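Replying to the earlier thread about multi-chain prediction with a worked example.

Input:
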Amino acid sequence: MKITLNGADAQVDSPPLTPLLHVLREELGVLSAKAGCENGGCGACTVLIDGSPRRACLTAAIAADGSEVTTVEGLGTPEALSPVQKAFVHFCAAQCGFCTPGMVIAATAYLDKGGSGSREEITEALAGHVCRCTGYLKIVDAVAAAREGDFDMSVAAESPHTQVRA
Amino acid sequence: MAIQKGHGIASIEYPTGMNQNGDPSQAWIKVKPDGRIDVFSGTTDIGNGSKTIQSQIVADTIGVPYDWITFDNSNTDSSPVCTGTFASRATFVAGKAVLKAAQRVRERILEVAGQEMEISPDDLDLDDGDVFAKDAPTRRMSVGDVAAAATWTYGELITGTGAHLNPYVPIVDSSTGEVDSPPHAAISYAACAADVEVNDETGEVRVLRLIQAYDVGRAINPALLEGQIEGGAMMGLGLGVLEDSYPYYPSVDNRAGDFGSYYAPSSADLPEMVNVIIENPSVDGPYGAKGIGEMANNAQPAAIATAVHDAVGVWVTELPITPERVLAALDAKSGGSGPRREGKHVAYDEEISINAVGTGLAWRAD
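Result:
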């Protein structure tokens, strides 16, 4: 089997029914897709297959044969982050980071498909992704801002939900 | 059927670190020959941001830029002891350990710089990576040059250790037998107000808004603090209305066995949130900080319970406040003439459910 992984050709030699998640992590050494529940419930393994978000834990390798597979490594680089990656940094939208790759992939797919950026749409688009640290608020703020584009990366975003009293 | 609205409030006080001793944190800091700083601390960052917070404390205390700090907690064998990331202690207790170690490193940097510059260390200051004479700020040398002099001229490694351990005080006074619990190192305070909607036919509770105020002592990293408050709020919402492996309808065989059937809150449950951060510095925390890690998910369930009472007039005294429990409480209040659906009495009986393993009989229909 052959896939295009983050723009480069990759040969896959695992048995055809191996979950794509295991192919990525164990055969191809791409560790950003996380093995959370491994039964489709948590969203941490989500990758783009031909541009659509898919659970890598539920996708057999053979089902991805000939496809373009994109993980967060393929969205941007540390020097040139994608708009969603930039927004996650700017809004401090990660804590332990385990759910973050899946969230970034889902948010990217949502925006690529022309999402309006409304709070209702974003919370629905991300509803299949469990995060236990951040409370989702900063993630939703980040995705809404990513659609708008530019922000000052030299400072952290100020949360519109917080007031500080001395 | 009607949607009933209600408001509730709850408050909490919570200690930082463990009362009594047995809860040490240690830190070791060394300065590389180019002036960059290596921090060794046993504190595990479980997503609470303790690496960032402790690096900030070290950078500010020594007087060097934040990005000069390397924080290493990678190895149990080589790290100093830290009892762990629990009891809301990583900022307060472990933060004090790195603060004390950083103070010693700063003192030693000033002493070596004093030798190089032929100025008394008391007359020197250190800020943003430069040592300078207090009354002649143009006389200065970088921490990198100080560290190089220590390494290549004096044959010395600039280093410092620090540790924090609350003192042991007996809880029971042996002469009188009275329980005399000493005060905790710092107490954090918070309050949460909840707005909810309750459907009085289905028993569903929807949390619309959480307004929360936290006395944190000092917000060393406001963005991480907000994350802790917001994340705690969602955990509290889960404890309040969602998270349980119960109910097992129609039988115990159907209990939650994986993430797909366990009701962890998702972004779809996200209520409107308002965070109020109150900085009321503690006397002995690092830069006045206290810990709020564990308390962040405590006030919401109680606030939600009072809001449910405000909405439909019943107290649900067990968490989570599931639709079944709301309906059972409404039914008990009405003396058995409570909610009905399609003509059937829909009050849910937990005893029947628990005893219904294998029979599928969970609903009391009459």
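The two ends of chain A are 61 Å apart (CA to CA).

Feel free to reuse this layout for your own posts.
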